[in-house]
Protein: deoxyribose-phosphate aldolase
Organism: Coniosporium apollinis
Amino acid sequence: MSANQPPHSTAKDLVPPTMTARYTNSEWAARIKEVEKSLSISKERHSVPRRPEDVAKFIDHTLLKLDATGAQIDGLCAEARNEGFKTVCVRLNFVARAVSNLRGSAVGVACVIGFHEGTQDLTEKIKEAHAALSAGATELDIVLNHPLLSPSSPSYEEIFVELASLRNLAPPPVCLKLILETSQLSPHQITAACVLASAARFDFVKTSTGFNGRGASEEDVRRMSSAAALLAANERDGAGEAGGVLRMQVKASGGIRGWDDCRRMLECGATRIGTSSGVWIMRELREREKDAEKGGREGGGKRPGVTRLYTDEEVSGY
Ligand SMILES: O=C[C@H](O)COP(=O)(O)O
């Protein structure tokens, strides 16, 4: 299937039923507590690619302003094609236009769902997701209903049912990302959201919508990346010979404006960057590379090469 082919184009009116619960709230609470007990936040600095064509593949080129115009979406798609970005990230009303713009390219189309509060009910989110897939979206960035993580009475069961139902509607190769809105969550709630997203087989946890509170922070990305690594390791242990466990990845988004912000997020363990400043990041990176080359020629330094962030087994291939 090509990157831009609608995965559900033959089943336009078919919306699968919602999934039933897997664990009770208190069982989820116990599982989350276990994960928290063994979670240590990695201080590792992940290696980062420097060649612009490699960096571009980590970027979701994003335009989510409510007053965005069709002409701006056309421009966004042209930039994404030109730079070789991973996707363009747009609202539902522009998915079909973006898909048509990007036909024949390797650039995918990500659509935000439940944007930006996340509090829509499950039926609403399922309808939106179904419409996005039918229009050709290859990735869905779904906002967590984060008020359901309220510290006094968290509804883990309800959140899991929502996530599992959306995964059921959109199986791989559709890439599913859960937007946590980390500015609204405590570290404990962030870990809880990672546990639920991983159990529902989401491909990514994503920091922010860019519309509520601060954007991505190094601390949050490190926590999410460490939790994802631990959850994959736990599952690998449980899977024994069966293997095949995929590591959930982290998308940093919100307020990432320049190459230094982008590099810092990748160093903390993000493997996708959501930003409305993609073109500026690439411009800055090219300028830095030019300076480094110049310095290298004059001072005998070495141009940084491309390094791998994860092994093939660790990433899910998106
Ligand atoms: O999903 C991505 C964010 O909305 C992008 O946020 P930004 O406009 O602050 O770059």
In short: The beta strands are 59-62, 87-90, 108-113, 139-143, 175-179, 204-206, 249-253, 272-275. The chain has one domain: 25-299. The longest strand covers residues 108-113.
